[in-house]
Amino acid sequence: MTSPILQVENLVVTYTGRHGLSKKVIDNVSLDLKAGETLSLVGESGSGKTTIGRAILGLAPVTEGGIKFRGETISNISRSQRRKVARGIQVVFQDPYSSLNPSMTVEDILVEPMAAAGAPGGRQRVRELLDSVGLPSDSGSRYPKEFSGGQRQRIAIARALALDPSVIICDEPTSALDVTTQARVLTLFKELQEQTGVAYLFISHDLGVVNSISDRIAVLYQGSVVEIGEADQVARAPRHDYTRRLQMAAPVADPKKQRERRAARLQLLAAEKAADVHQGAPAQL
Ligand SMILES: Nc1ncnc2c1ncn2[C@@H]1O[C@H](COP(=O)(O)OP(=O)(O)OP(=O)(O)O)[C@@H](O)[C@H]1O
C-alpha cells in the first residue's frame, strides 16, 4: 500500500475571540491523502472545510495534533522552514476575481511563485503552463480583467502548477462559475491529474460536484468528520444522516430526479420523526 503524501493527524483548531472566549472549530480530525488521489471534503457552510485547508497551508493555528507532508511535520514550523518543505503544496481559491493581482500581467502572475522559490521559470515555462490549462500562448502579456471567470480560474490553476506540486488544495474552485464552465474546469482538474499525478484535497459544499472527480469523500459536520469512504458509496449510499441531508440539498437539473429527491427527503423526515431523532440534528440545509 502506498504511504500517504499528506497526513492530518488528530487536528484541533481553536480560535480565541476578542473577549478571550475560545471556540474549537476543528475537533480531532484525521485525514490521509495518497499520491495522485482526490479526496474531497464536503460539509455545509461553517463546518470547517476551509479551516482544515488553511491549517495545512500554515494559515490557521494548529492547536493540537499535527500535519505531515511526505512524512515531515509541517505544522507549527517557521515560515522559512515551510518554504523549504511545503513548496509541493499549492492552492486554488474559490474566487478567481480576487485571487489574481489585477495589476500584474498573466506572465508575471505565473513567474512569481517560481521566482520566490528560486526555481527556473522563463517564457517557455509560462507558455507550457498556459498550454496545459488550455489558454492561448499569447495570454501572458494580458491582465486578469481581460479574461472570463473560467479563464481566470485556469490562470489560477496554472499558477498552482508552476512549481510542479504533488498536492493542490482546491477550495471551492468552481463555486463562482456557471454550470457549463464549472464542468469544463472540473474536466481540466481531472486531465491535469492524469498528466501530472498531482493529488487534490478538494473542498466543496456540494456533494454533487465532488462525486464526479473524487476517489474518496470525507463529510465534515461542525468540525468533525462524520463519514469517510469511497466517493460513490458516500455520494450515492451515504451511511450518516447528515450526509443524506447534504445529498438531498445538492441541486439537480433533471426534474424526474428532483421529484425522486423530494420523495426521498419526505421519507427521511417521516422516518426521523417516527424515530424521534431530531434532537441534535443539523439545521435545515
Ligand atoms: N479567523 C477566524 N477567527 C475566528 N473564527 C473563525 C476564523 N475563521 C473561521 N472561523 C470560524 O470557524 C468555523 C469554520 O469556518 P470555515 O470557513 O472553515 O468553514 P467552511 O466549512 O469552510 O465554510 P464556508 O463554506 O462558508 O467557507 C466558522 O464557525 C467560522 O466562523
Automatic annotation (TrEMBL):
Keywords: ATP-binding, Nucleotide-binding, Transport. Residues 6-247 form the ABC transporter domain. InterPro entries: AAA+_ATPase, ABC_transp_ATP-bind, ABC_transporter-like_ATP-bd, ABC_transporter-like_CS, P-loop_NTPase. Transmembrane segments: none annotated. The keyword ATP-binding applies. Belongs to the ABC transporter superfamily. This is ABC-type glutathione transport system ATPase component. It comes from Paenarthrobacter histidinolovorans.
